[in-house]
Amino acid sequence: MRKSLLVIIIIAFNSCNKTNSEAKISDSMNSTVVNNSIEQKIDSLLEIMTLEEKVGQMNQYNGFWDATGPVPKKGSQAEKYADLKKGLVGSMLNVRGVKQVKALQQIAVEETRLGIPLIFGFDVIHGFKTITPVPLAEAASWDLNIIEKSAKNAAEEAAVAGLNWTFAPMIDIYRDARWGRVMEGGGEDPYLGSKIAVARVKGFQGDDLSSSKTIAACAKHFAAYGFIESGREYNTVDIGTSTLYNTVLPPFKEVADAGVKTFMNAFNELNGIPATADTFLQREVLKKDWNFKGFVISDWGSIGELVAHGYAKDLKQATELAVKAGSDMDMESSAYVEELAGLVKEGAVNEKLINDAVRRILRVKYELGLFDDPYRYCDEKKEQEITGKKQFHEDALDIAKKSIVLLKNDNNILPLKKQGIKVAIIGALANDKTSPLGNWRLAAKEGTAISVVEGFRKYSGNELQYAKGADLVIPNTEISMTQEVQVNTTNTSEFGEALSLAKKSDVVVMVLGEHGMQSGEARSRSTIDLPGVQQQLLEEVYKVNEKIVLVLMNGRPLAFPWAKENIPGIIEGWQLGVESGNAIAQVVYGDYNPSGKLPMTFPKSLGQVPLYYNYKNTGRPVRDGNVFWSHYSDETNDPLYPFGYGLSYTSFSYENLNVEIVDTHEVMVSVDVMNTGKVKGKEVVQLYIHDEYASVTRPVRELKGFEMIAIESGKSKKVEFKLTEKELGFYNNKGEFLVEPGKFSVFVGGDSKAELTNTFTLK
Ligand code: BGC
Predict the structure, then answer these.
(1) Alpha-carbon separation of residue 186 from 21, 227, 499, 557 (angstroms)
(2) Which residues, in sequence order, are CB contacts of 687 under 8 Å at separation 6+?
(3) What is the pLDDT of residue 96?
(4) Catalytic residue check, 299
(5) What letter does residue 487 receive in the DSSP assignment?
(6) For the whole prediction, is pTM greater than 0.90?
(7) Atom of ligand 1 nearest to the CA of 168
(8) 3-class SS at 705?
(9) Which domains does the chain have, with CATH numbers?
């Protein structure tokens, strides 16, 4: 039976010897029932909490079912239960489903002295059970409404499973395709990344956090995790202030302003200081300058890892450094629960810091409505009804098709005819019902994605045959979040069957790429080509039938220059979640006209990495007849496909780029966009600026506006953009935001190489 926290506190009070001051709190608590603010309730609660209970609120344990990181030595089920009963746990992660949540919440609420409810966190990264496209794919839609909708649905489905909090969105900006976690974010650009970050936070949190359909979001990883050296997971980050302020921090600032409830710090060090112990980031920037009122959680075990970083001599010092730096909650290091009370008692840590952290945590719990009803998220009947509901699937399909990017369409090989042709589908991924779910889908069932083969059968009446060609993954090896994927690099024995099928078909659809578990956390790669024997398979098939549509499935940019050169049709099909095959079939057969645009530059070769569109000009940007300019001897500087790139089954032209300065720091830009093709289509109109000279050098191009428009064939639309201080300015190396006078160029078009240009000069 449910007990309200207030009752429990009062009972706890009555069972102690009341001092005068306690009696006063008790009185004030009674009056809080009707009208006191959350802050006053927290004051009252803090006064009756023991130091150990406060520290308990700052402790998060992993549940007993799944692990998303190395499991610490301490942490047997029995030990965790014991701590839970003592009120030494404030939160749990990786607990899923109403039954599990309820069982643990019951202990917290009914068996601990104060009955403070737990907050349950989970990595709801792209859907909870109904898996939507991986976040990088969704970013390719450039459609903020559907990105918000996706997060909203995920929140609802997670909330009915008893969860209150997602460790998402990941809003790290990154430029290195080797890093496995690029699949988890919004791409390489701080402007697009900020817009997507805010949309996701809005989706998860809604307008009312106490609604049983919303959950708290978590902006992660604070900060600069996306800049790990050489894309190698957990590696060192060493970047300058300009990159920090202008590229890394903007999305975090935006979501702090938009009211995100929590932040997660990061595994990496930043310029010699591990982010978890970085006072500048967490206390000065986040909590002071940005006035963030929520709480900061460490990353998994990252407080304990301060020792391995060489920043703390032992767990005790790590605890002291982390808490002083502003890490409010400890995920799975058992550092706070073991060391923090002792540190306070010996005077090394001021209890005020503990009170501040606990206040932040309790505030979020209050805002979630957990104190009103700790089981508000625990309704098994609703869980049954809502999980995997039809609407979620319809939305997942909509999001998936909008995330697809058409990269090449020579001689209009696409869309394919729906009847009367013989279609061969080749590639292990085409028939895979798990890989398209991607990584970070702990709560989903394996094998629940619609495969490409299934999607094609549904959307066309063609004669369709499938041949695997080759395994991508060595058969019977374990594929899970915690194991390396074993790729087949030798076995070509099934090529023959694929080749004879290709030979007798009118068109070949080859589905190639990475397994869904080849990207994600701890999935860095030292190559970014098609893994295993797939490139070889592609070239062999091409020898017998050149009419190929290549459908790529991957969680990171891949380099496929040969395919770009030779294959007439290329579609970027990412890992699109449960509706993958349906979405791809709709695009291939023309039921949906693609409108996605790459949120990350695709390099030609690994040697170019990190490659990104908003680079600096250098002092020697152009060839001047000799070798002394910024270039490679054996490769051009151009990408395979630039940021913002994506085709449609129609075409667009841009003209009349007008620029008008309307105020000191306000510029209006307008452009006419015409649909010059034969069918209706959608275009993401992109605006880039170049601040030509400044006190800190600015990139050659910076995205500062975009708008998605739908235009009928032969019609045109005027699109207007307003550039204000926010778009025109930048941060100097002291972290000050400036708008400087001088000349700017504007470029508008369908990708970051847009050629239509104009200029203006700010006074
Ligand atoms: C990841 C976080 C994640 C956490 C909990 C860590 O390994 O870096 O992003 O939220 O695990 O699963």
Answers:
(1) 51, 14, 38, 13
(2) 669, 703, 704, 705, 706, 721, 746, 747, 748
(3) 85
(4) yes
(5) B
(6) yes
(7) 10
(8) strand
(9) 1-116 (no CATH), 402-599 (3.40.50.1700), 652-762 (2.60.40.10)
Ligand 1 centroid distance, CA of 72 (Å)? 14
Give bridge partners of residue 666 from the DSSP assignment. 663
Q: What does the chain come to in residues?
A: 763
Report the mean per-residue pLDDT for the chain: 94
State mean pLDDT over 605-616.
98
Which member of 299, 328, 395, 398 is catalytic? 299
Q: Using one digit for the tens of pLDDT, what is the confidence trace for 508-534?
A: 999 999 999 999 999 999 999 999 999
d(CA 158, CA 163): 6
pLDDT for 77: 79
Predicted confidence at residue 76, as pLDDT, reads 78
The pLDDT value given to residue 19 = 30
Task: Express as a percent the part of the chain with pLDDT over 90.
Answer: 91
pLDDT band of residue 68 (cuts 50, 70, 90) is confident
pLDDT digits (tens, 9 = 90+) for 291-338: 999 999 999 999 999 999 999 999 999 999 999 999 999 999 999 999
Distance 354 CA to ligand 1 centre (A): 24
Q: Residue 583 C-alpha to ligand 1 middle, in angstroms?
A: 29
Which pLDDT score, from 0 to 100, does residue 3 have?
35
Q: How many CB atoms lie within 10 A of CB 482?
A: 13
Q: Whose CA is nearest to atom 4 of ligand 1?
A: 300
| Secondary element (H or E) of residue 357 | helix 351-367
Spatial distance between the Cα atoms of 726 and 743, rounded to a whole number of angstroms:
17
Determine the atom of ligand 1 nearest the C-alpha atom of 68. 12
Note whether 218 and 230 are within 8 A (CB): no
Query: Does residue 180 carry a pLDDT above 70?
Result: yes
Confidence of residue 75 (pLDDT cuts 50, 70, 90): low
Question: Of the candidates 308, 305, 228, 233, which has an alpha carbon nearest to the alpha carbon of residue 522?
Answer: 233
Cβ-contact 52, 83 below 8 angstroms: no
Average pLDDT over residues 430-448: 97
CB environment 502-536: b (16+ within 10 A), e (fewer): beebebbbbbbbbbbbbbbbebbbeebebbbbbee
Return the higher-pLDDT residue of 480 and 182.
182
Distances (CA, A) of 626 to 414, 629, 631, 632: 43, 8, 11, 13
Query: Which tokens sit at 25?
Result: 């709190």
List the residue whose alpha carbon is closest to atom 2 of ligand 1. Answer: 299
Mind giving me the DSSP string for 101-151?
HHHHHHIIIIISSS-PPPEEEE--SS-SSS----HHHHHTTT-HHHHHHHH
DSSP letter string over 296-351?
Answer: EEPPTTTTTHHHHHTS-SSHHHHHHHHHHHT--BEES--HIIIIIHHHHHTTSS-H
Report CA(523)–ligand 1 centroid distance (Å): 13
| pLDDT > 70? residue 72 | no
Judge whether 563 and 538 are in contact, CB under 8 Å.
Answer: yes
Mutate to test the pocket of ligand 1, among 299, 439, 440, 523 (most ligand atoms within 8 A of CB): 299
pLDDT at 9 over 90: no
pLDDT band at 36 (very low <50, low <70, confident <90, very high): low
**Smallest CA separation from ligand 1 atom 12, residue:** 68
Report residues whose beta carbon is within 6 angstroms of any ligand 1 atom: 68-69, 93, 123, 167, 220, 299-300, 521
Cα-to-centroid distance, 123 and ligand 1 (Å): 7
- Name the pairing type of β-strands 59-62 and 330-331: parallel
Is residue 117 within 8 Å of residue 371, measured between CB atoms? yes
CA 9 to chain centre: 39
